[in-house]
Design brief:
single chain, mainly alpha, Glutaredoxin, 11 helices, globular
Length: 256
Amino acid sequence: MATRISITEARNLPGMRLLLLQGLPSPWSLAAKGILEVKKIPYLRVHSTPDDSPELLGAWTGQESYPVAAWEQERPRSGWAEILLLAERISSEPSLLPDGDADRTLFFGLAHEICGEMGLGWCRRLLAIHEGLRANPEAAFLKHLATKYGYYSPDLAGEAVARVVSVLNQLDSLLELRGAEGSHYFFGDRLGALDIYWATFSNLIEPLPPEQCAIPDTLRPMFTASDAGTREAFTPALRAHRDFVFHEFLGLPMDL
């Protein structure tokens, strides 16, 4: 388990410092942590604490979201692709990128469909905000998130569901193709970043059980898709792949 420190402590230290959201299965944070751990890159685990001033994260990293990977005195990286490519540069083995130009191009497209703006994670977050505000229109935290992520509106809910279903269908089709070739992975015969992204982001659709993923009971509904289209698109094959990656590579119970 990585040493946990405050942002204040981490800022001027050497090596890798990984700023993570604490206490919730944020898929962006879980994926970044999983990438470093699979590649055996030592890191200090950083969380915001009461000792950190509210503006410190923005002053150091230039933005106010998690995760952030800070390597030596280089600029901090906060984008999912930036963090992956930084990890690949620090430790080339095991590589989490597919071999070959065509598969690499397909990988980055699908990874964006999971991690990027209006991708699976982004849309599931919009839908959680949407459902929360329908239940409590004056919820200050949800109103903050709706503003923070830029362009939330109730009209986006239908589009967001369609995007989630589309991404799940793409992943299921690729998994079926790779399975017919005898592979347990999205690319080749080894674990890759897309396997990690899918496993971690799947917790925004159907979280692992409480003994494996300790979300507070009051928040678990926000992480659970209830619409029929998403539930149908979350196929047994996608669920089995998620379970395989966590059991074999990422470890359970989750360390939140």
